């Protein structure tokens, strides 16, 4: 997933009317009992607790997505996106309320008011956040589940989840400071009611863009057929390592792109039994044994072609009990215990050299 897609999904989650409502009601009750200073502390503690909880929810759900077949996950995400798009446009065109418009079910709203009234001090917002975050799940889980499905093959999941959830809680933090500057929570609720219809429209458009982009990329990376003398690249458009590898490839070589969400991955897995599904995976199938490269630095990790620089990559190689390949006294790349090369510029050059010699079949 590229960060634009991730950002769109997080924004859909963030501008959900029920998220804004929960924060405003909580702060209104706290403001009645305490001052503006306590509102800031309580609002930040509530937002931080929700952030941590959703981060753990995400990590837990990711452990489940691992057991799903990539093609199954692709269809599940498409169905989920279609349902959300329909619900958001239903909220705009028919001004529907509740679950049919990606909002909190009407039956749960009374509990939000009930638990929000229990706030007595800034620190009491922490246990209340545990309860209210669960009540938020019916209206906020759709975009989050979609994002989690799309990043299931990414290497830096924790960073991506952190970014997503920071965007998710950003309106909560904004509302906290708006209340602290003198804007009443009641005015925020009135604004939400007035513009709720337009928030649904914006969310629907963002989700439609995500749907079209997701399927465009899926088709782009599964429609290419293998041609003799090309290199296989198992790739995910959700993976920044893959993106940088693609940018590093010369234009004069044939690449067979295979999406990690494609059925073709099963064929690759059968030929590479030691592969555990990590991407990017680059393979030159030869008559003798395949030449395989797994992983690649992201743009920020790439230091002179190595993961974080030559010294750091050598340490990583030792940590994984790999074999360092030295040429003319200089470290080039690492052979992992699986027999695969750990991806860097020099490992990539080995595959390109094999390709140019006509070894790839």
Name some characteristics of this structure.
about 350 residues; alpha+beta; 2 domains; 7-stranded mixed β-sheet; two-stranded antiparallel sheet; about 60% helix; elongated
Description of the molecule:
Helix 4 (70-93) packs across helix 8. The protein contains twelve helices and nine strands. A seven-stranded mixed sheet has the order 2-1-3-4-9-8-7, sandwiched between helices. A two-stranded antiparallel sheet has the order 5-6. The chain is of the alpha+beta class. The model has no long low-confidence stretch (mean pLDDT 83). It folds into two domains: 3-220, no CATH class; 231-356, no CATH class.
Quick take:
With 361 residues, this protein is an alpha+beta fold. It has helices spanning 3-14, 17-33, 36-65, 70-93, 106-116, 125-150, 157-180, 185-220, 240-248, 264-271, 310-319, 345-356; strands spanning 231-235, 255-259, 281-284, 291-294, 302-303, 306-307, 323-327, 330-335, 341-342.
